[in-house]
Design brief:
alpha/beta, Gyrase A, domain 2, Rossmann fold, 3 domains, 13 helices, 13 strands
Length: about 450
């Protein structure tokens, strides 16, 4: 492979800029770009150590005083010779270092190319490589914890073991058939059924966890509903921390559903601001009310907002059918104005009641605490990749079909065809049996420098 270089330190300017090189010429290039304080080549020093020195421009002048490290293959992130320069995060300094590297034979790295090389060189499985992208995209502590566990092999390692077990099941049968005179243990149908049963249970648990994994990434959906002008959009803006929704004294301002993820206690909820639910006065409002009800159907919980400065109108128990059976809190808004009713009147009708002011922020902490309790607690490591989930479902279908055939008394050569298909699907998940087009597509979604 050739040698690649890129900025790996994020947007510039910044406190620190990171220039990363990987490939067979990483050593010769870093020797010309970086001069350590004792003037000994950094490639002759201990790897995984930072050394202080000068970053040199193409003209040989000092561009920066910085730190650098050299990692000798195969003991590096990519499995190749690698070098990293930790300089001041000035665009001029970083770009000057990269220009020098390109002049010496490196080329600009493509999106995710460092991690792609790590995968191709066997440093990471495909599940672990995809976890790197999840780690970079993590917005909450729970997402980071889940990505770190995947990166550490919490999903990839058992899947590779399962694939090996199913492969061994097939190999055992074919060995018995091909070498009848050898001293090989007989193929036992009961043991094969037990293996397939355990495999199905393992795959079923991973598939079931994908829905929770999706909520982990997108947020636990909570609809903000109620009558027009109750203060829904003001509450939405207060929880979002910005003026996402238009707020006026005119009823029916909100016509579409606005979405906003909000980080809470390590996880996040996805707030859905909806149109006021009433008999619509026009076509646009009718569509808005329909979308509000659709959002309520999609939501896992709801905040029913009441205007605390106005008498209760309608029947507070008359929640939309889409909300029945879901956690639903009453939010009595505008408590900075004279109250028109006692919020305790709602206590026997909702899971919780909160009195607050979106304008002053009073009472928001208690509501946020309740919302935090809705977020599924961190525990099991969850599948978050739709690609992986789809393949795991197909592998599960194949295993279930094989188990049913085995239990029905079909011959092993018949039901093992389904097992072999499951092995292929699992290989696509882990990267042991995946096309280059799929690999290219996965890593094209990464940022440059990772």
């Amino acid at each position: 492979m050739d040698t690649i270089a890129a900025c790996s330190g994020g947007a510039l300017p910044a406190a620190i800029g990171i220039v990363r090189l990987s490939g067979p010429d990483a050593g010769p290039i870093i020797e010309k770009i970086f001069s350590s304080k004792d003037e000994n080549p950094i490639t002759k020093k201990k790897t995984y150590h930072l050394y202080y020195g000068k970053l040199l421009s193409q003209s040989g002048k000092t561009l920066d005083l910085c730190l650098a490290a050299f990692y000798r293959a195969p003991h590096s992130y990519t499995g190749e010779d690698m070098a990293e320069i930790f300089c001041h995060g000035s665009p001029a300094v970083v770009e000057g270092a990269l220009r020098h590297a390109y002049a010496l034979g490196a080329r600009p790295a493509g999106p995710g190319e460092f991690t792609r090389r790590a995968f191709l060189n066997g440093k990471l499985g495909l599940v672990e490589a995809e976890a790197v992208a999840d780690m970079l995209d993590a917005q909450t502590e729970q997402e980071a914890l889940n990505a770190a566990a995947q990166l550490d092999g919490a999903i990839g390692t058992p899947l590779r073991a399962l694939r090996g077990e199913l492969t061994g099941l097939c190999a055992h049968f074919y060995a018995v058939c091909d070498y009848p005179d050898e001293d090989i243990d007989p193929f036992e149908y009961s043991r094969a059924s037990e293996t397939l049963l355990r495999a199905g249970q393992q795959l079923r648990a991973l598939c079931a966890g994908f829905e929770r994994g999706s909520l982990l990434k997108s947020g636990f959906p909570v609809a903000v509903v109620g009558l027009p002008n109750a203060g829904k959009s003001s509450l939405f803006n207060a929880l979002a921390g910005s003026d996402r929704a238009i707020v006026t004294s005119e009823a029916g301002t909100t016509r579409d559903v606005l979405e906003q993820p909000v980080a809470l206690a390590g996880g996040r909820v996805l707030l859905l601001d909806t149109a006021g639910i009433r008999t619509p006065e026009g076509e646009a409002e009718r569509i808005g009310v329909e979308r509000a009800l659709q959002a309520a159907q999609r939501a896992r919980a709801a905040l029913w907002v009441f205007d605390g400065s106005q008498p209760l109108s309608g029947d507070p128990e008359a929640l939309p059918e889409a909300l029945r059976g879901k956690p639903c809190a009453a939010v009595v808004s505008k408590n900075d104005l004279p109250p028109a009713f006692d919020p305790s009147e709602l206590e026997d009708r909702f899971d919780a009641v909160f009195s607050l002011s979106s304008k002053t922020g009073e009472g928001l902490d208690a509501l946020c605490s309740w919302l935090s309790g809705l977020i599924p607690p961190a525990g099991e490591v969850l599948v978050t990749s739709p690609r992986q989930a789809a393949l795991l479902r197909r592998a599960l279908d194949s295993v279930d079909a094989a188990l049913a055939s085995a239990q029905a008394g079909m011959t092993a050569d018949a039901f093992l065809l389904d097992v072999e298909q499951a092995v292929r699907f699992l290989g696509e998940v882990t990267g042991e049996d995946v096309s280059q087009d799929v690999v290219k597509d996965i890593f094209s979604r990464f940022c440059v420098g990772k």
